[in-house]
Design brief:
Number of domains: 1
CATH topology: TATA-Binding Protein
Largest sheet: 7 strands, antiparallel
Length: about 130
Amino acid sequence: MKQSPSLVFESDAFAVIPGEDEQTNPGIVGKSLALWLAEQLRSAGFSAGEIIAEDFGWCIPVDANSHSLYVACAGTGETQDQWRVYAFVEGAVIARLRGQDRSAESLATLFAAVRRCLESAPGIRGLREELI
């Protein structure tokens, strides 16, 4: 798995949906952020699928050719208005063997789009990049 840096920010725009952490680990929220970001990515021309719950947060699957591409969204747990978003890619084994692996390029393109979505959104404060 390859992963982008995290984008961490503050925003009151993403309400916690009652019971959402029952689908993830206790205290892990971010469903409303994932729903919003999936729509933003669709508007930016990405084929974002329906969000899915994982134990670490809410994931947005994004169509890619020879690999699986996702955006993960979750609260940081430090304050109710602090969020963490990052992109990651899995797979591409056959493409790597053939010397045709474009997963790093796809990951970089998606990460840049996510960053643009967050930078242009009103109500997002203190956007910063952190290495995981």
